[in-house]
Amino acid sequence: MGWLDRQALSAVADALGLGVWAWAVHAASNGVIAHPVFGARKIFFLLFLMIGPIKILLPFVEMTKDTDAAFRRRLAGRAILFSAAALAVAGLIGRSMLENFNIPSSVLALTGGLVLFLVALQTVLHPFSADASPRTSAGSTPGLQLAFNPLAFPTIVTPYGIAAVIVFIALAQDDLSLKMTVAAVTAAILILDWIAMLFAHAILKWMGTALQVFAVVLGVTQIALGVNVILQSLSLIGVLPARAS
User: Fold this and answer.
1) Is 241 helix (H, G, I), strand (E, B) or coil?
2) Alpha carbon of residue 40 to chain centroid
3) Cβ atoms < 10 Å from Cβ of 162
4) Closest CA to 151 of 196, 105, 207, 103
5) CA torsion sign, 103 to 109 to 114 to 119?
6) CA dist list (Å): 124 to 47, 55, 116, 117
7) Which of 245, 243, 238 shows the shortest CA–CA distance to 28?
8) Other C-beta atoms lying within 10 Å of the C-beta of residue 84
9) Do residues 75 and 151 touch, judged by C-beta distance below 8 A?
10) I want to staple 134 with a disulfide (CB 3.0 to 4.6 A). Which of 6, 87, 150, 209 is the partner?
11) CA 185 to chain centre
């Protein structure tokens, strides 16, 4: 996706966000905003593309191609610990900041839908791109410092992954069960990331093409999910007519 395409998408998102915010303020003043509901399955699929293992495999293989299995295990373990800590801190800080601005939950859901839609669209248009994978400096020996950067961030914990986690935690508000669901789903995906890194070389060798196809299929599904979340949020806000269940 070129610079002009990214600028155009950003402009559309900004314009839509400003318009929706105006509608949301008006709707909130009349008490008509409802709270969107996300189940565990939907949260899993929404987060899988953003912090899941598919996008990690190629960068991990490239940065560890001249290392032994023991080093790869240590690197993967440290990266997952850093990733979990980063997501926990970002979720707590982000939720606090969003609450300070009193952003309606429907706008938060719309934000999540927009993030999902744009990320999934990029995945479909540019699947499994090697150009975006981080590389170690030529002639340098890989070390465990790679676990934090670039492996934990931004490869595992992507900026849009952080945004999605913040939105889900903020949507949970005082719902402890939903907060626990978000935490459990995030932990499960990080475990999948860890397992994928342990077997990354074998997975890419035998299943590389199949993963490319799966990534596109998953991306198309998540584009549809993103559009659905956007439409539901706009209906709750009052921008669109109420949709039948």
Assistant:
1) coil
2) 15
3) 20
4) 196
5) positive
6) 16, 12, 12, 11
7) 238
8) 18
9) yes
10) 150
11) 12
Q: Which amino acid is at 173?
A: Q
> How do residues 61-79 score in pLDDT, each as one tens digit?
999 988 899 999 999 999 9
Determine contact, residues 177/140, Cβ cutoff 8 Å.
no
Alpha carbon distance 53, 85 (integer Å): 18
Calculate Rg over the CA atoms of the chain: 19
* Dist. CA 155–CA 147, nearest whole Å: 10
Q: How is the chain split into domains, by residue range? A: 53-133+142-237
Mean pLDDT, consecutive 10-residue segments, the chain of 245 residues? 42 39 38 54 83 90 89 95 94 83 77 82 66 52 85 90 85 82 94 95 86 81 82 79 61
Query: What are the structure tokens assigned to 121, written together?
Result: 């669209």
